[in-house]
């Protein structure tokens, strides 16, 4: 069995296994491995002839980028979670399984179809594996990327705590936006400080915003927090910092297609930030369509 391994050696903290350790694990399990570094563009070309299985070893950024390339390709992929949040791996149920057991389990693992999503607007079209959002998370992600807040964190846990604190600090400074929202024709418009269109259960620093989302139900989960409900976010983040980050107490809807209309806001599409300049039409208006792409991916999921 031939495996293409796409590895981000910079993912997570210093406790993650090296390239040599990963290769040894996979080869000892009886697989031929084509190793590709996620830090070089060659991995994209390698997916033109990926063999029998694609393995993404890294965090959500690496896993998401690989999955985007495999949408509609009928090629199974699996995940070795090495990142900080590992939201995709958590949704897949892979986080409590040792790496050795994950690799050993590939031989008998189930091939499970999974949904993805497609977002389109003035900037073009983007495949979504995780989520698209406006408001607090998009606002904070753009600041974190350009700051030095995460440079001195010593572990993945420290990094998650730092991001939770940054989110909490920014709740009161995150402006509400008037959004015209249509979910499968239903009007759910309002003024919102947070909008997340979820394809998986978790977002950001392991926030469990969409617990009812399943891998292949053909539905997106839309999570909303209205202006005036900022205290719900603050209280939830406080609980998360205290280690009690259970289900989020935010309004949720499910549907197949969401249209977002508004002005003057940025979004995140998975881990990519799109500014209002990217999103706006010549008249300044923003129109974004997000649709589910049912069962467009295939994951290999070893039993726990």
Q: What distinguishing features does this structure have?
A:
single chain; 304 residues; alpha+beta; Rossmann fold; Tumour Suppressor Smad4; 2 domains; twelve-stranded antiparallel sheet; four-stranded parallel sheet; 9 helices; 18 strands; globular
Summarize the structure.
The two termini are 22 Å apart. The chain is α+β, with helices and mostly antiparallel strands and 304 residues long.
Number of helices: 9
Q: Any idea of the CATH topology of the largest domain?
A: Tumour Suppressor Smad4
Count the domains.
2
Task: Assign the CATH class of the largest domain.
Answer: Mainly Beta
Distance between the termini: 22 Å
Helix coverage percent: 25-40%
- What's the pLDDT, averaged over the residues? 94
By secondary-structure content and strand pairing, the structural class works out as alpha+beta
Radius of gyration: 19 Å
